[in-house]
Amino acid sequence: MGVSLRDIALRAGVSVATVSNxxxxxxxxxxxxxxxxxxAIDEMGYSPNLSARHLRRGRTGFIALAIPExxxxxxxxxxxxxxxxxxxxxxxxxxxxxxxxxxxxxxVVHGLRAQIVDGLIFSPAQLGPSDLSDRRDSVPLVLVGExxxxxxxxxxxxxxxxxxxxxxxxxxxxxRRRIAFVGAQxxxxxxAGLRLQGYTEGVHAAGLTVDPRLVVRTPGFDRADGADGVAxxxxxxxxxxxxxxxNDLIAVGVMRKAYELGLRVPDDLAVVGFDDINEARFTxxxxxxxxxxxxxxxxxxxxxLVSRLEGEDNVPREYEVPFRxxxxxxxxxxxxxxxxxxx
Length: 343
Description:
- By secondary structure, this protein is an alpha/beta fold.
- Helices cover 42% and strands 16% of the residues.
- The chain is built from 13 helices and 13 strands.
- It has helices spanning 5-12, 16-24, 31-44, 50-56, 73-88, 102-110, 129-133, 160-173, 191-205, 223-235, 248-260, 294-309, 329-332, and strands at 62-67, 92-97, 119-122, 141-144, 154-157, 179-184, 215-217, 242-245, 270-274, 288-292, 318-320, 323-326, 340-341.
């Protein structure tokens, strides 16, 4: 038989209720008593029965995390943080990938999940406020990603416009004058629309003019999209001397194509990405990038959802997570300065 709360209470010389308060954090317990109970827990190797605890509360113990792409390192790294934070709160995360498809995203927000999961963390790529206003699923929802205004859900995002402006201003400060943006999309609801706006503002702030020929729309956001998208520019008669890429994967593709065409990064072409995935530190040259604080995003998403599940807060909140510009070799070469702060 496993160790019970009664066993711990007998060992520590306290009531079962006191042990329960220590294990579950229901009520404050005197520091000395808490230490005594924790020592008994450690000595006897007790671990709480999370399934029973969730059942007593009418819950499953599972929360869902729905993201656009499982094979995108940014979302994989974000999921890793969320999974660890959920475990700390006694929850298991079920992953769902929508591939950024509108119909699948609608299935996520309107699907009948109440008997499967206790809550949902969702990073939509295609949906807007009207898609969430008549949501049928009753489980608590926390949104992660771009701002969807006027909906009654917690929302965690970064300022994509300001971050993109910082990236472009960094390139302009290095004397780059033909700065391309690779990874634009037609939808202004996607991050690409906001990052295009930040790119435009950054170009204007540098006293430059946006050349529409330097704005490259790509079908996707992977390495091949970056390589294929930038190739006509680099082969043209008036190529760019810098690229701000929608994300790090596109930036990696851009650098690969530059190498194939005999160009040197950053001498001939400076490159900045977005996301600061782990791969960015190990490319050759290493990639300058905008780094959202993924640890804060993942932990905040889980804690906000748990707060809803515990009934601690009923007011929808907007959380804006900081970012920073990480300067590496793809813009300044081997002589690296200190990392520049973001917003």
